[in-house]
Structure formats: structure tokens, C-alpha cells
Amino acid sequence: MPDLSLEIALQANGYLRIAGIDEAGRGPLAGPVAAAAVILPKNFNCPGLDDSKKISPKLRDRLYERLTNDPEIYWAVATAEREEIDRINILRATHLAMRRAAEALVPIPAYCLIDGLPVNPFPLPHDAIVKGDSKSLSIAAASIIAKVTRDRIMREIDREFPQFGFAKHQGYGTKAHLEALRIHGPCRHHRLTFQPVAQLTLQFDEF
């Protein structure tokens, strides 16, 4: 389970505000990529808080409400939109969303712990932590906020384009989603540079 060991070590070196940063939505064929940045208070405790991929949607929603309504927790969430993903690629778009989330935090963090591989360029001192959402409570909190935020965005998109079933698969390439793509062609939320969307010969229609 994640804990505050990494944060405590940084605080011992004089960094008082440590933000965890994580993303959601790198792999789907549609929708934005979302990133969250979270500063937790000292001695923070939240039973059940873990990597968002390891817990149920119901628990994620409960944790999201707990995290975003605690006045001692500072958090921000940001996205990179489908157009940006297609223009600059998903890795750069993910890093862009992470930078936006970090820069939106008030107060600005002194140091950041980022899930995954190094982010360059990045405006603040930081460490990249592989599988950080299973090690750092701050990153785990960010993973919850990013995931729930993006899932809610995909439910809004589902209301606009119900034929694709975005509320069920959040844009991932499930069998049902691929079949809907074959029948209807991509909508304006699909990532046109992603396979198999890019392989479709059906005309892209800006609804």
C-alpha cells in the first residue's frame, strides 16, 4: 500500500509542500487525457486510498469526494484535449496536462512526485517514480482525482454520442467500441492518430 515515506524524506530536506501527480487516459481511442496534482497534509490517513486501477469505481467515487472536500488538501486537475493529443502525440499531451495541473495548484508545490518516467521539460523540481501510485499516497490521491474526473468527462461525451458507449468503456478499445467505430466511423472526440481509428477509411464527420 502507498504511504508518505517519499514525502516525509523530501520534507526532511526542506521541501514543505510535496505534490503527487498522476494521469488518466493515455491509452483510450477517444477523449482527453487528464492529470491531477495533490498536496496532502502531514500525517494524512485515508483507509482504502490506493492506485485507482486497483479499486472499484464506487470506492474511487467515495475517495474522490473525501479528497476534494477536505479543506486541508490542495488539489488541481487539468486536461489535454483530443486535438492536442493528435497534434503533439499522447506522451507530450500527457506531460502538458501534468504541467498544467502542477501550475494550477495554489500554493505552488516546492517539489513534485510524478508517476512514471521523467517529464521534460517540467517547471518545478521533481522525481519520477515508476509505479508511484502504489508507493506514494500523494500520487495515489492524484490517480483517484484524475481517473474520476476523466470518467465523468467521458460520461458527458456519452450523452452527446451514445452510439459509442463511452460511459461503459471510457474510450478504450473494447470489442463493442471497435464495432461501433466500424459502423458509425469516428466522432470528433476520437483520437485520429491512434490505431485503429487512423486505419478507418470511413469519412471523419465533424458533428
Layout of SSEs?
Blueprint: H1 5-12, E1 18-24, E2 33-39, H2 57-68, E3 74-80, H3 82-88, H4 90-104, E4 111-115, E5 126-129, H5 137-160, H6 166-169, H7 175-184
Parallel strand pairs: 1-4, 4-5
Antiparallel strand pairs: 1-2, 2-3
Question: What would you say this structure looks like, in words?
Answer:
The protein has 207 residues and is α/β, with parallel strands linked by helices. The chain folds into two domains: 5-159, Ribonuclease H-like superfamily/Ribonuclease H (Nucleotidyltransferase, domain 5, 2-Layer Sandwich), CATH 3.30.420.10; 160-199, no CATH class. Helix content is 39%, strand content 14%. Strand 1 and strand 2 form a beta hairpin. Helix 2 (57-68) packs across helix 5 and helix 3 crosses helix 4 (90-104).
**How many strand elements?**
5
3D shape: globular
Instruction: Please report the first level of CATH classification, the CATH class of the largest domain.
Output: Alpha Beta
Average pLDDT confidence is 94
Concise structural overview:
This protein is 39% helix and 14% strand. It has 207 residues and is an alpha/beta fold.
Attribute tags:
207 residues; alpha/beta; globular; 5 strands; Nucleotidyltransferase, domain 5; 7 helices; 39% helix; disordered C terminus; 14% strand; five-stranded mixed β-sheet; 2 domains
